[in-house]
Amino acid sequence: MAHRVTLLPGDGIGPEVMDATLEVLDATGVDFAWDRIEEIGTAAVEAGREALPAKVLDSIRENGVALKGPVSTPVGEGFSSVNVAIRQALDLYANVRPCRNLPRLETPFDDVDLIIFRENTEGLYSGVENFDERLQIADSIARVTRAGSERIIRFCFEYARSHGRNKVTLAHKANILRSSTGLFLEVGEEIAPDYPDIEYEDKIVDNMAMQMAMYPSEYDCVVTTNLFGDILSDLGAGLVGGLGVTAGANIGDDEAVFEAVHGSAPNIAGEGKANPTALMRTVVMMLEHLGENEAAQSVSEAVRGAYRDGEVLTADVGGSASTGEFAAHVAERVGRGA
Ligand code: NAD
User: Fold this and answer.
1) From atom 12 of ligand 1, which residue's Cα is the shortest distance away?
2) What pTM value is reported for the model?
3) Is the CB of 126 under 6 A from ligand 1?
4) What's the 184 CA to ligand 1 centre distance in angstroms?
C-alpha cells in the first residue's frame, strides 16, 4: 500500500531540492501517495491566506508524516516563522539532526558521527515575548518545563539504545541560567541512571561548542535545549560539509515532519546550484521511520557512493554539477542497487 505523506516543497531552493529528492525516492520503487501543498509562507500570504493554512496541519495530522522544504521567514516584520509554528502546533518536541561525514568530502575531520537532539518546542523559542514600547525594553522568556525536558531527554536515550549508540552528552548553561537550563540538567541527572548501558556526561554549552569544534569524534548523542540545539546543530553541519549535506527530522508522539537543516537560501534560489544531499539524507530518515529500511539503506548508499566517486557533485562541495545533474546521478545509483 502507498504511504500517504504530506509534501511541502516550500520556497527559495525548496522546490529545486524537493524535485531532486523525489527523483531519487522514485528510483527506490517505494510507493507514495503525496498530498502536495504549495501554498505556505509567502506564497500563502500573497494569495490572501494565513501563512500557515489550516489545511497544512490537517493534512499532516491525517497522514502522520510530512516531507518539507524550507519556508522563508521575513526578518523583524510580517508573519512569524511557519516552521516553528508547525513544530509547536503538532508538538514535535524532538528535533533530530545527525552530523556524519560523507566519503572523500574534505572537512577538518573525517570521523564525525554525532547526533544533536534539540528540544523543539520550549526554551527561548516558546514565543513568550514582551516589548515595552515606552521603556524600550524587550523580554524573551526561556520557558523550560520538567515534562518537556523529560520527554526529549528520554527520547535521546531511547534513540541511543535502539541505534546501538554509546554515549549521551547533555549541553546546558546551568551555571548562569540556573532556573531554566538548571531544570533541564537536573532532569537529565535523574533519567541517566535508567540507562546504565549508556555513558552519560554533561557539558556547559560554550565548552560544548569548543569541544565539538576540536574533538568532534568524542561525541555521539548530544541533547540540549532549543536555542543551544539550533546553534550546535549548525556547528555540527559545518563539521561535515555544511548545510547542503545535513539532514533533520522533527518528531512528536503522533506526527513527524522531515526537513533538512538548511533554509531557503535566497542567494542561490532558482540557479540550479542548491545541493539536495541534505534533503536526500533527510528522506533516509523518513524511509526508516516508515519501516522502509531497505530503501533507506539504498538511498544512503547511493548518496555516499556519489561522494566516494566525487565525479558529480554540486558547487558547495567542490563540484560543478547542477542540482538536477546530481539528482539524476544519485537516482541512477539507486536504480542499479549500487
Ligand atoms: P540558509 O540555510 O538558507 O542559507 C545559509 C547559507 O547556506 C547560504 O549561503 C546558502 O546559500 C547556503 N545553503 C543553504 N542550503 C544550501 C544547499 N542546500 N545547497 C547549497 N548551499 C546551501 O539560511 P539563512 O540565509 O539564514 O535563511 C534564509 C531563509 O530561510 C530565511 O528566511 C530563514 O527564515 C529561512 N529558514 C527556514 C528554515 C526552515 O524552513 N526550516 C530553516 C532555516 C532558515
Assistant:
1) 265
2) 0.93
3) no
4) 29
